[in-house]
């Protein structure tokens, strides 16, 4: 089974977590795109969705799924999104697609967070995938220096990329993240950081992992 086939299977499984007659949150990225395509088959069962990026909003609308402004609704039942890495405690690294801030906001509002991924994303210690940090443009050099001094790793500006919020992304390479919650809080305390791609203080409630033998369900 190919990686795309595993993503397809796990996206189909995620439909079981969609609560009827509610507004759901939808993430950004290749696995989320598989989910959006699957969601289109049951779109009449939901009121609509909140999108975590302009790209996701466009894909939802192309499928005829109503997209809501988060500021104009009261609740999100479920947030469904992929991840770049997950540990066994369902702490995540997200933001490979650069939508980490909006993803984190939607995840914070949702009653439950269902993460969908293929089995290659589950690791014992996170950090092999570069950790994304969204940064206010004028603070990039300051934030880089603070990361080197306080966190470690090698922060690099993502080339030719601007977030939907008009900011830059720093990707921190060569990390071993042994305390994700503490690192998430420490990074967010650096002036100029909008947020970082660690989803630990609000991690996933359920991780659906696509494997060659079917979907594995991991819960906290």
UniProtKB/TrEMBL annotation:
EC primary class: isomerase
UniProt gene name: rpiA
E.C. number: 5.3.1.6
GO BP terms in the entry: D-ribose metabolic process; pentose-phosphate shunt, non-oxidative branch
Classification of source organism: Bacteria, Pseudomonadati, Pseudomonadota, Gammaproteobacteria, Candidatus Pseudothioglobaceae
Pathway info: Carbohydrate degradation; pentose phosphate pathway; D-ribose 5-phosphate from D-ribulose 5-phosphate (non-oxidative stage): step 1/1
Subunit structure: Homodimer.
Family: Belongs to the ribose 5-phosphate isomerase family.
Catalytic activity as recorded in UniProt: aldehydo-D-ribose 5-phosphate = D-ribulose 5-phosphate
Catalytic-site annotation from UniProt: 103 (proton acceptor)
Name of the featured protein: Ribose-5-phosphate isomerase A
Molecular functions (GO terms): ribose-5-phosphate isomerase activity
Positions bound to substrate: 28-31, 81-84, 94-97, 121
Record keywords: Isomerase
Naturally occurring in which organism (per UniProt): Candidatus Vesicomyosocius endoextente
InterPro entries tied to this protein: NagB/RpiA_transferase-like (IPR037171), Ribose5P_isomerase_typA_subgr (IPR020672), Ribose5P_isomerase_type_A (IPR004788)
Function: Catalyzes the reversible conversion of ribose-5-phosphate to ribulose 5-phosphate.
